Amino acid sequence: MTTITPDLSMTLHGDQEQIAVIRMTRPAKRNALNDGLILAIRDVFQNLPKSVKAAVVDGEGDHFCAGLDLSELQERDASEGVFHSRMWHAALECVEKGTVPVIAALHGAVVGGGLELASACHIRVADDTTFYALPEGTRGIFVGGGGAVRVPKLIGAARMTDMMLTGRVYNAEDGERVGLSQYVVPAGTALEKAMELATRIAANAPMTNFALMHALPRIAEQPGDHGFFTEALMASIAQAAPEAKERVRAFLEGKAAKVSKG
Asked: Is 176 a catalytic residue?
């Protein structure tokens, strides 16, 4: 295990150290986010070892992340607030638009900034203890870490509005139903499931993973004709990679596993 800061660690897993588990280590604070932790997350994702092909974000203790550490909230004027929010945007952009797919292993509180962090990941696995909330609306503040952009893409603007206006809390099952996670697993097994998924993802062709992280979200937001064109370019680049050619050849020669009912 590598200690990045007292509040963040990284452990490499797999024979070739292809999976990085990045863990928030502030259990006494329910892994609440402060600027130091956000900057440490930025730094670790900007400097992942070359061997890493997939990453898992986890929280030590009973909670993934209970949001912003309000004890460290500072008074700022409007311009200072804008720059502070943009710093968080840049940090979480390193998670979403970095070099490898990222799976969030969720449990306990996924609240406020914790949900903003989770929404910057590409896949979210929640265990039965998980609950989601955006209490900023009832505290007289507004999301500032990218939640206003990322969360509506998962659940729609109307559901996010409801969460912030009323303080609504979603449990793990309802969270999956509305799109806050892709998987729900028994309590205490989110990390295990996330590691299973990361292992599968790390075995993909790197250009395919890159396309899914960087091209697909952009295609989804483009007008149809632009999206079709971008898709054609990305498909041609991906299939031209030597590894892709080897995988297609293996399938045609009957050496690759066929899709079966899960």
From this structure: no
